[in-house]
Amino acid sequence: MRSDGRLIMKFNTNDRLEQKGYSIKMLSINDSQKVQELCNTCSDYFLLEEGQITGCESKDLFQALPPNKTMEDKFVIGLYDQSSNLVGIMDLVRDYPDQDVWMLGLLLISPKYRRSGAGRDFHDSIMKSMVQEKANTSRVGVLSSNLSACKFWSEVGYVHLKEVQIDIGTSKGKVVNVMTKDLESVIE
After folding, report:
1. In the sheet where 74-80 sits, what is the strand order?
2. Could you give the number of structural domains in the chain?
C-alpha cells in the first residue's frame, strides 16, 4: 500500500529491459514535473491528437478517470533509463470498461527512445504484471491518423474491435481505433 492509500502493482521487468538498463516504477502526483518534461518532449503526439502542440497537463494524467472508477483503479507507471531519466509513461485503468479488462489510456515514449524496442519491452513487462493482477484483456484506443502507433499496437498483438469518434481538446470527431489484446497468451 502506498502512502496515498493506493495499491502497489508488482512489476515484472523482463530480461530485455534489465539488459538495457531500464527500470519500471509506479508514479505519483509527486512526479508531475518529470512527467510534464516528458510530455513536452513528445509534442509530435499532441500535435497529432489535438491538431496543435498543446502538451499534456501532467496533473490531469494522474487524476483523469472514466465514469464509475476510483483512484484505486488507476496506475501511472514510469519507464526509466540507466541514468534514471523518465523516458516513458503508461496510464492504466483496471476493470474498465468491463471486469478483468484493463484500459491502457496512454503509452508515451520519448522520441529519443522510440524504435529501440523500449516501448515494446515496457508494454510486455506491464502486460505480465496485469496478468498477475487477474487481467484477461488489455484495451487501447489509437488515433487512426497515428499510423506508426496503429502498426505498433498490431505488432504487439492487438486486434481491431471497433472505431469510435471522439472530441479531443479543440479537435472534433477524431477517429479512434479501439483495439484489444487477449492476455491468455502472456506467460506469467
Report:
1. 23-26, 74-80, 86-93, 101-109, 137-143, 171-182, 159-168
2. 1
Q: pLDDT per residue over 2-30, tens digit each?
A: 444 444 566 655 567 777 888 899 999 99
In a domain, 98, yes or no: yes
Asked if 168 contacts 176 with a C-beta cutoff of 8 angstroms, the reply is: no
pLDDT at 79: 94
| CATH code for position 106 | 3.40.630.30
Residue 44: inside a domain, yes or no? yes
Given a contact cutoff of 8 angstroms between Cβ atoms, the answer to whether 102 and 135 are in contact is: yes
Predicted structure pTM score:
0.84
First to last CA, the chain: 23
Which residue range is the domain that position 35 belongs to? 15-132
Question: Quick one: CA dihedral 122, 128, 130, 135, positive or negative?
Answer: positive
Beta bridge partners of 106: 91
H or E stretch at 76: strand 74-80
In angstroms, what CA-CA distances link 164 with 29, 126, 161? 30, 26, 10
Bridge partners of 64, per DSSP, are none
